[in-house]
Amino acid sequence: MHRFDVNTNFISISLGNNLFIIEFSPFTIVIFSNDVLQVILDGFNLEDSLDQAFAFAVSFPQALQLYGIHEHADSLALQTTQVGGTDPYRLRNLDVSGYELNSPMALYGAVPVLYGHGPNGTAGIFLHNAAEQWVEITNDENPQAYIMVESGLLDLFILLGPTPTEVVRQYVSLTGTAHLPQLWALGYHQSRWNYDSQDDVKDVVANFTTYNFPLDVIWLDIEYTDGKKYFTWDSNMFSDPVEMQQNISATNKRLVTIIDPHIKVETGYSVYDGALEKDLFVKNADGSNFEGDCWPGLSSYMDFLNPEARDYYSSFYSYDNFPSTTPVLAASKKHFLVMLYIMGEWYIATSITSTAYYT
């Protein structure tokens, strides 16, 4: 049942057991579920513009503690960051090798979903915005967050639970769920940066067997490639990758190779040449291909918002298109970067690490 009540100062919307009261000045949204106040959104600092930063506050009256806004090397329960606490939590995708523990500093991923949990219910919000964000947290009698956003839209989803399980289900109904992994993927994986040669790999596998230590999968970081060109092998240090895979499979183990999203700018490299010909790379504002420095040197990035780019990139996860691979190479750790150009700066909209299985 839906009901709308319009007043000069507010709008009241009833949706089933939920009641939304939207006040115009100052802009506030108050949300009740089963007659219990669950979420208060305070937009007193919002501006009607896409070209500048904005901020808003959200509180969870039924909560005792706030959780979420991953990733940070911190406790599961978010710390208070107001006066007397830590710095605000930062959401910005950064490759930080020497990160600090128990810190709100930004790390590899940024997930702007926030949960408030207490004995009388759990609720949450998901801010669908790719820009950099800073989040002040207050855990007191009325746990709340003050969220500062570099730019873009206030595209906000309210998650009313009322249980932690239901809140997470509501969140993943927006973002999608992970696939159920194969049984071997649940075993012990050995991954280091880096094994420099196939002899190193075989030696590590042999020692696991010698010392009767369970091992299901060994990973290769990007040094196995020919000059950081993915879907290739270093012909000197990995001169016979098929033989190496046979050695791994002799004791019923599997191999995973790491593949990063940057594509080396080099004519003659088939992955780059094909993407260039099909015009599949992320663009600068002037329409030229974006190029930036990464592990291979000068690199371009697939435009994963383009379905043709996704299909092209995925086609290389094949024993036919990745030379000298066998079914022992069961998967690759695959990075997807979706990049957006906002106000003269590039933002990583999503940095997804997933597993691609070979066919």
TrEMBL record:
GO terms under cellular component: endoplasmic reticulum
All copies of domain Glycoside hydrolase family 31 TIM barrel, residue ranges: 179-317
Alphabetized UniProt keyword annotations: Endoplasmic reticulum, Glycoprotein, Glycosidase, Hydrolase, Signal
Example GO molecular function: alpha-glucosidase activity
Residue span, Glycoside hydrolase family 31 N-terminal domain: 11-136
Subcellular location: Endoplasmic reticulum
InterPro entries: Gal_mutarotase_sf_dom, GH, Glyco_hydro_31_N_dom, Glyco_hydro_31_TIM
Pathway: Glycan metabolism; N-glycan metabolism
Domain of life: Eukaryota
GO biological-process terms attached to the record: carbohydrate metabolic process; N-glycan processing
Chief location of this protein within or outside the cell: endoplasmic reticulum
UniProt similarity note: Belongs to the glycosyl hydrolase 31 family.
Protein name in the entry: Glucosidase II subunit alpha
Source organism per UniProt: Tenebrio molitor
